[in-house]
Amino acid sequence: MNLPVLFLYSLPLLYFFIFLIKFIHKKRHQDCYILDYELYKPTDDRMLCTRFCGEVIRRNKNLGLREYQFLLKAIVSSGIGEQTYAPRMVFHGREECPTYEEGIEEMDEFFFDSITKLLKRTGIPPSEIDVLVVNVSMLAAVPSLASRIINHYKMREDIKTYNLTGMGCSASLISVNIVQNIFKTQKNKNALVITSESLTPNWYAGNDRSMILANCLFRSGGCAMLLTNKTALKRKSMFKLKCLVRTHHGAKDEAYGCCIQREDDQGRIGFHLGKNLPKAATRAFVDNLKEIAPKILPVRELLRFLVVSWAKKLVKSYSNTSKEAGVGGGGVGSNNNNNNSRAVINFKTGVDHFCIHTGGKAVIDGIGSSLSLSEYDLEPARMTLHRFGNTSASSLWYVLGYMEAKKRLKKGDRIFMISFGAGFKCNSGLWEVVRDLDGGDNAWKDCIDNYPPQTLANPFLEKFGWLHNEDPDTFSVPDDYVIP
């Protein structure tokens, strides 16, 4: 065969070879890694103890005995301890009339503490940040909070910025998804993700029960993360994003209105948590799991689940047929609840650790029950809720920090993150641990040896249980009342 003919025959093979090299090269640069993250730990003078919480509640002159009793029940059952943090305006007694500047200062204190520490520890200067994503749902500033960070750190003129508001507690995974999509089209980039919530302008001072509840759950916190798709930094990274799924039920009125900022009858703005919130969360959660399960679980588990589901449907169908035929007494369909129960997919076959949003004790319990998780699996979320409360979108990262501080995370481990947010949204993602993590130096460092504590009992019931015995017609809290 002469050379020209050989060349013509080899062209398709050469084209395929070049295409394969380009595809592999492109995929290598599309990966999304967390190089490092910094959890914000406010100063001790912003810590809420039981005594001070009682004082804050007493200052609200719009509350009656019924509201006090409701708050007592909510706080005692919340799962929150005595070392969470609040904005400074609460300690200054300004929760009914916070200023705009106080809200900005609350964010500045978090921004410049956490970002500075993160950049110093990683050795990445501000000039090497290509993308900045900031999510603070309930504070809109002009210029934006992202611009405020750029101005402070004198970042580059061509930096790409995204300033998210109104995304709620699931916003951090939305921010990560934005970075992930950018990394798919641009290589060798560093991205800084900032996630927090401003409580200063959003403390509710009215007496609507559905809005008072937010004061019991939400606390100050935040997280700064440095993400990259640079292959040179791969081995230095902590986590690699494997999969991320977002579910949004905003088109359904019931889901849209169950978790919303609005005014009460007196015109006071607050965050309404509706009674249909659990139902909306469950539906979003189930739909999200249906989409992400096939992407993160082994084929053998998916096949097992399908076979078991089919078998249970077959047994149920036979049982119903038997009943209709009059064979119900002691037969197949009468007393066999196990066969009639739904098949449960085992997420532990593809997941080593569960990073659950600390929306409240009921949220953690509900997810634990749905996924058949052990107390060991739920411990990071429970302890985070107890120590830091619900810090909105940054909660997931405090849960992750607990796992790291406990030295649970080893190379190759897979971490499943689950978050919920207003909208109503459920977002989830799977991360892989890139290297063994030895505990690090995060917000848990000074207290991790005390967790889990012997008891998570809240002392509020002991101090304020007398409220249950008061007469609504004669009850009043005197101005000089001294909290026990």
UniProtKB/TrEMBL annotation:
Pathway: Lipid metabolism; fatty acid biosynthesis. One of its GO terms (biological process) is fatty acid biosynthetic process. The active site is at residues 169, 248, 353, 357, 386, 390. CDD domains: CHS_like. Residues 351-432 form the Beta-ketoacyl-[acyl-carrier-protein] synthase III C-terminal domain. It is an enzyme of class 2 (transferase). Its EC number is 2.3.1.-. Residues 26-313 form the FAE domain. Gene3D superfamilies: 3.40.47.10. It catalyses: a very-long-chain acyl-CoA + malonyl-CoA + H(+) = a very-long-chain 3-oxoacyl-CoA + CO2 + CoA. InterPro entries: 3-ktacl-CoA_syn, ACP_syn_III_C, FAE1_typ3_polyketide_synth, Thiolase-like. One of its GO terms (cellular component) is membrane. GO terms for molecular function: fatty acid elongase activity. Keywords: Acyltransferase, Membrane, Transferase, Transmembrane, Transmembrane helix. The chain crosses the membrane at residues 6-24. This is 3-ketoacyl-CoA synthase. It comes from Oldenlandia corymbosa var. corymbosa.
